[in-house]
Amino acid sequence: MKSENQPITPGSAPRKNTRQAKVKWGDNVITLGGNAAILVQSMTNTDTVDAMATAIQVKALADAGSELVRITVNTPEAAAAVPAIREQLDRMGVPVPLVGDFHYNGHTLLRDYPACAEALSKYRINPGNVGMGAKHDLQFSQMIETACNYDKPIRIGVNWGSLDQALLARIMDENAARSEPWTPQSVMAEALITSAIESAQKAEKIGLPGNQIILSCKVSAVQDLIGVYRELAKRCDYALHLGLTEAGMGSRGIVASTAALSVLLQEGIGDTLRISLTPEPGAARENEVIVAQEILQTMGLRNFTPMVIACPGCGRTSSTLFQELASRIQGYLRTQMPKWKTQYPGVEEMNVAVMGCIVNGPGESKHANIGISLPGSDESPAAPVYVDGIKMRTLRGEHIAEEFQAMVQSYVEQRYSNRLILQNT
To answer: Is 357 assigned to a binding site?
Structure first.
């Protein structure tokens, strides 16, 4: 007897239950971990010593939607500049928390520049780069004690390119004693996970609360990253920061990061992420923020900006009008979001369809909040516009783009301003 089909229930696995950290600056308190929203992070590539240039780039990243921004703190001059960066951001009305990225000399910089330690909202510590031999534990402890004194959370960020060599040697010795030794790849993964968890446990023994600790174990190969984070999530309940290190440039970096992180997010693993793209010459640094947002939004985990649905084009769409309009509308929506997200709550959930011919155009337009079906090759030079499934108007002539953009603006004002009124009543 044929069994009855079961209903399809799309969606990701439940989030792993992790501890919840608070990353703060002034009145801006960002919750990281647990059942909080998965956060988007980014990192500047300016010289931190140039406080103005760094503050400007931080603002651009924050305006694009980065909820935490990391800056390099590698020299005394950089540490001295951090308070000025924070002050400039506060003047510009940008309360985004700053994360200090420390390697090798973080213990001395945090000790010698207390204003830097205070101005940062979170410290990133790589346990493979805090000193060798006896100095390792001492210098790690000094950084953790500073975090305790200033009530700052930390990210213990282990990287396969800079593992603690003493720990790696220990793991290799343990492997050599096995009756069936693991592969070098498995040994490396074990060293990454062990370094992260043991470092977190040391930090707790020093006095840092466990909910102030975030872990990351970054590698550059997709399958390795998935395997490491699956095991890390099994072994601990610390909040986890996701990222593929040295992801690469352009489409390679985007595809690799998306492939790795999407698998983990679908399994409920990850509390915050950064897309480590190598910028194309002249490309905006904010691209890494946009990619992170689009991964989360495409997977249905968060909404950041209205989605533009557009067909890929074919022989029916020899005109480039729909491509130009889709690009224009996408840029317009993203530009408007810093203002819209405070004026029109819920607007980030809106879908806009820009279609290129009659085959799927009307159907997709009807399913969107607002959609336009542009004429394809040999079709009538008319562009019907659908609003909430109803054909509202047909646009013709040379100003279709301007008229449709105005209709989108009008739709946002009418549909989402009501939500603001309801929230205030």
So the answer is: yes
